Amino acid sequence: MNEIRVNFERLRDDVQSLSRIGQQEDQGIHRMAFSEGDLEGRRWFRSRAEAAGLEVYEDGAANLHARLDWDGKRPAVMMGSHLDTVPGGGPLDGALGVLVGLEVMRTISEAGVKLRHPLEVVDFTDEEGRFGGLFGSQAIAGQLTPAIIHNAHDLDGVTLTEAMAAWGLDANAALFARRSPESIHAYLELHIEQGPVLDRNNVSIGVVDAITGLFKWDVRLMGQTNHAGTTPMDMRADSFQGLAEFSGEITRILEEHGSPHSRATIGRVELKPGAANTIPGQTSFSLDVRDTDAETLKNLSDAFRRTLSALARRRDLMFEFDVLSEIPPMRCDPGLVQLLTETADRLGLEHLRMPSGAAHDAQIMGSVTRTGMIFVPSIEGKSHSASEWTPWEDIEKGANLALQAILQLAAADAGVTIKEQPAKRKKA
Predict the structure, then answer these.
(1) Collapsing DSSP states into helix, strand and coil, what is residue 185?
(2) Which amino acids are annotated as binding site, given as ranges?
């Protein structure tokens, strides 16, 4: 059989080159969607793809597609992730999946592999959620509406329509980015784990079998603003005390209504009026809840709502909440899970089958086509920071596993293989 591997030196150069785009003094990367850093990163990706002889196409949602052997007739095998970052993000979250996809296509093109399915790698727009999250993949999946597009805005009040118009783009054109299921044969995404499981177990590869769903609320508890010194404790309607009680109930709710994969987080709290000598009349906070099972998520939603309602009555408070986002969980395609598992076994790569606790574009693409994911380790589980990193040897192993999986999905002769690699990685 022919032996084919990614050009790892070229992939490593891509990672290092892209990581300098949007990097600021804090060493974090600032390529938020439709920012100058994002624009520069897109230009860089386009130039790399065109230099490799790939066709580049931008759809109405500003997703960038690099294509190999494209004819618009045969369903494509798609890879992808995102180049945008959170403020002060790391060099690999999202970007590694795009760069590995690009390198897989370059390697296959240079090897002259005959394809029965064209290949496509996508840089999805705004996965990190400046305007709500997963915009690009939701456009491809046909999950957007004019109202969603019109109402999307960032934390500073800038609307998606305004941000895209500044680039000369019409946000409503995202409605035309929808792809039919018949146009995509399969979707595969490589991503850093963003958690500590692989690193702590000294394993190089995670085969993802499920991606968590989530709901995110903006909750407001409303009581009575009053003087901190003159209002007796038993005569207060202290909204913050309501939050304190609710926070203490989270563990119980997860134990009674959740699963081992359940997560709940209060990540933002705001007290009003916010004075040291004033009882807070309003407490606003975020609630982020996740699980890999849709029914469990519903049960958790009901339980959190009941708990908030009960404590509000006891404490003479009112409560209300807005749903900021709801993303259903997704089970990866069993056939692709098996393909990745068997391929990793054949290559001598130790691996774990595991769920993803973070949302990904793959989750949305799972509503359109069969979907699989590969994880590589995150050192100490760090992500969304300048400390985010994955050992080079693990990146190489993950890239070659992705290459072999893509060959089996798309090559006319699926007998093309790569050399086997050591099963164990060196501890960083």
Answers:
(1) strand
(2) 82, 93, 128, 191, 384
